[in-house]
Amino acid sequence: MNRRKIEIFTAGCPLCNPVVNMVKELASETTDEVIVYDLVKQCENGHCASRVLQYGVKRLPSVAIDGKLLACCTNQEITRKDLMNAGLGQNA
Fold first, then answer.
1. Which domains does the chain have, with CATH numbers?
2. What is the pLDDT of residue 33?
3. Which CA distances in Å does 9 have to 56, 65, 89?
4. What is the tens place of the pLDDT at every residue in 27-76?
5. Looking at residue 69, what is its pLDDT?
């Protein structure tokens, strides 16, 4: 039986840690492999950054299962246009 690969992308922050704990709690030791990528600490070989680009991670925490980023983790990144539409960069 193949093990399910669960990848968690985190910044090691108070908002990320509960997600890491929840995934670990729900994961099965026999059927799941949980990998936590702390993007603040990075990985020795840059594997973390390549995975972020591969999956299109735009927010943290994010979770991918078997190579697919979960739908709840696919919110778009903050763009310059979003900031300008909110009034940033304009005279008050």
1. 4-85 (3.40.30.10)
2. 95
3. 11, 12, 31
4. 998 899 999 999 988 777 778 889 999 999 989 999 999 999 998 888 77
5. 92
How are beta strands 68-69 and 62-65 bridged, if at all?
Answer: antiparallel
Report in angstroms the alpha-carbon separations of 6 from 52, 80, 87.
14, 32, 39
Structure tokens at 46: 């840059």
Place of tokens 């840059």: 46
> Whole-prediction pTM value?
0.83
Quote the strand ranges of 1-92, DSSP E. Answer: 4-10, 32-38, 62-65, 68-69
Look-up of token digits 């979003």: 82
**Angstrom distance (rounded) from CA 80 to CA 92:** 18
pLDDT at 18: 93
Pairing of strands 68-69, 32-38: unpaired
Look-up: residue for tokens 């929840």? 22
